[in-house]
Structure prediction request, 227 residues.
Amino acid sequence: MTETVTEPSAAAAAGSKSEQAYRAVKARIVEGIYSPGYRLVLGSIAKDLGVSVVPVREAIRRLEAEGLVTFERNVGATVAGIDPTEYLYTMQTLSIVEGAATALSAPLVDSVAIARARAVNEDMRECLDHFDPVRFTQLNQDFHSILFEHCPNPHILDLVHRGWNRLASLRSSTFRFVPGRARNSVDEHEALLKLIESGADADEIEKAARLHRSATLDAYLAQAKTI
Prediction:
């Protein structure tokens, strides 16, 4: 009996290309290749990615829904600007909920998780020599995820995830603007790990995690005043 090989449907193929276009354009926005105000010409992007205009248009619509792209009359699609007020509120909120999540998670963070977090932090330290703010930011998220993902309160954990997602939509690699903050951040990570290892009380861990986050915000705001 001969098997019938089913070719992918046109819809599935289009969906795959739309996903590829979405990931490619989003990556360029997040990495700063497409900076705020950059005009997204569908035909040029399609040619660059080797696809038709249709999946690019679908990708741009998704990015608009996420707040990364705006449409301007007589201009078309452009990369959205970074709203400093939204960044301020997001970081303030995240410092509170992530601090709480880290403190609640601490008793459940075992030696294996500590070792993983410390390894990530060492990668961050090595990243300082040839600084890449996008990679550093991803490693920073990986580090903190190890510490707060054990949080037993799903509502607090959900708020933390929302905060990180909001930062991503703001294309926030804060360290791009305040690279000097990166070295202090690595040192503070090690201090936080030592607190968790030593079995420090929840209030002390929460305060350290909160101040660590707010220190990055303070550095960003101080730099913004000089621009």
Residues 202-226 form the longest helix (25 residues). Residues 153 and 168 are 23 Å apart (CA to CA).
